[in-house]
């Protein structure tokens, strides 16, 4: 308030004051008037502070100056008023004094120079005091400035340190950011691991449940086991008893096996004796039924005897004066089968002979007779079980008997072959291509054919398959040449090799079961036979008559047996010798117009029947 009043004073006084003094007053107070309108300068407060409390510590003033310079200045300026007011002789004379002085100056008489000088001296002293105070303020400010400069230097140092610190922090921050990234990755991993853990925990729980159930099961099983163990202990006792029993039974079985073997050997001996008594070559006669049914008048088969057959022929009187005469031709064979005999009946008679093949004897069975007399039917038969012929039945019997003998320690190997002899040349019926076949005789008198298929067989079905193949190959050849099968011999051979290694005596046998379907035996009618037919007939007749010759040579124990005169006898020599059992079927056609051929066949068969070929001995080593 005082300052405002003071600032207005020079303005008012300028109009009133004398030119000389008013200029000084104007210079003195004009800045003060400006100061009230302008913002206070920064250093003012310090001056004011120094004036108000010069005894106050400079630090407080410094702090005030640094922190709030503008406001402080304001406060200091306001505070300066009273201090000046309290200054006594400055304010009093300037305020009221101004009024007074002004009034005094204006009231001083122009001549009152002394008064004016006094006023001027008062003013002068005021100014001096003010200058002194300003100088003191200046000194304080200088000190403060030095302090501030030191402070600024410190601050700069601090700033620099802070910056370095910031740099360090930034680096640390970078490191920390890296660590943060790692942490984030680790966190991600942690999350996935937590999930996995949760999953595993679930599984673990499931496993625990499973384990619990297994533990329960185990407990149950343990209980069962203990029960079983006690049962087992009981059973072990029983087993021991049974083992002892089995031991004694084994001993008994061994003894019985030995006995069985002795009996088996005895059976074989007796079987052979029976065969010998029956003759090593036997002839069965079989009469085919008439094609249209009915009974044949010229063939008589006495009902009481199944060994006789009589052919009756009525001869007309040439002159007509005498009665017609009847000639009977009677033949006796080991067995005669009438037209009603079944395939089964036929086989029963020869099954004993087939058994001989397993007992170590060569066996040969062949069918002789004119074309259409029933040779193929007898040997092969039809494919149905009831009408099956000798070959399939013999094969079945052989394999069944071999299986039974297997229980007594016998092991058998079988080899099958099927060959056709046509026009004195050989054909492999188990092979479709053409091959050069040659009959060879080894040093140990074994007869083999070079290039022939010898098929290893282990069961009946395999053999039947081979027979079917042979028939197929034979019928193919038949289509090329009419009625070829009637004009060729077919020879089925089953080589049997048996070993009994289980006993002290090693029994080994090698035999052949030979089943032959001969060519038609009808004689050659010279006028009708020409070219190929003539050649065929010559070959057939030659081989069949040589068969007869060989058999009678064997019967009369001649030194030389002409086996090599025909392929048939050469091939069958092992089965026709003294070491074999031979069965011949003579097949008869019942038609009257076959009378001549029938008589011829029966005569041939009768000759064979009369032969007694030496005693056969088993092929055992
Ligand atoms: N005992 C029989 N019972 C019924 N039918 C038979 C009998 N014997 C033969 N036959 C029939 O007579 C016909 C001629 O028989 P088969 O073919 O066996 O004579 P084959 O002597 O073998 O003649 P080939 O010399 O031409 O071969 C055939 O149809 C056959 O089925």
TrEMBL record:
<feature type="region of interest" description="Disordered">
    <location>
        <begin position="78"/>
        <end position="110"/>
    </location>
</feature>
<feature type="domain" description="Kinesin motor">
    <location>
        <begin position="280"/>
        <end position="611"/>
    </location>
</feature>
<dbReference type="GO" id="GO:0005874">
    <property type="term" value="C:microtubule"/>
</dbReference>
<dbReference type="GO" id="GO:0003777">
    <property type="term" value="F:microtubule motor activity"/>
</dbReference>
<dbReference type="GO" id="GO:0007018">
    <property type="term" value="P:microtubule-based movement"/>
</dbReference>
<comment type="similarity">
    <text>Belongs to the TRAFAC class myosin-kinesin ATPase superfamily. Kinesin family.</text>
</comment>
<dbReference type="InterPro" id="IPR027640">
    <property type="entry name" value="Kinesin-like_fam"/>
</dbReference>
<keyword id="KW-0175">Coiled coil</keyword>
<feature type="binding site">
    <location>
        <begin position="369"/>
        <end position="376"/>
    </location>
    <ligand>
        <name>ATP</name>
    </ligand>
</feature>
<dbReference type="GO" id="GO:0008017">
    <property type="term" value="F:microtubule binding"/>
</dbReference>
<dbReference type="InterPro" id="IPR036961">
    <property type="entry name" value="Kinesin_motor_dom_sf"/>
</dbReference>
<feature type="coiled-coil region">
    <location>
        <begin position="117"/>
        <end position="210"/>
    </location>
</feature>
<keyword id="KW-0963">Cytoplasm</keyword>
<keyword id="KW-0547">Nucleotide-binding</keyword>
<keyword id="KW-0206">Cytoskeleton</keyword>
<dbReference type="Pfam" id="PF00225">
    <property type="entry name" value="Kinesin"/>
</dbReference>
<dbReference type="GO" id="GO:0005524">
    <property type="term" value="F:ATP binding"/>
</dbReference>
<dbReference type="InterPro" id="IPR027417">
    <property type="entry name" value="P-loop_NTPase"/>
</dbReference>
<protein>
    <submittedName>
        <fullName>Kinesin family member C1</fullName>
    </submittedName>
</protein>
<keyword id="KW-0067">ATP-binding</keyword>
<keyword id="KW-0505">Motor protein</keyword>
<dbReference type="InterPro" id="IPR001752">
    <property type="entry name" value="Kinesin_motor_dom"/>
</dbReference>
<feature type="region of interest" description="Disordered">
    <location>
        <begin position="1"/>
        <end position="43"/>
    </location>
</feature>
<keyword id="KW-0493">Microtubule</keyword>
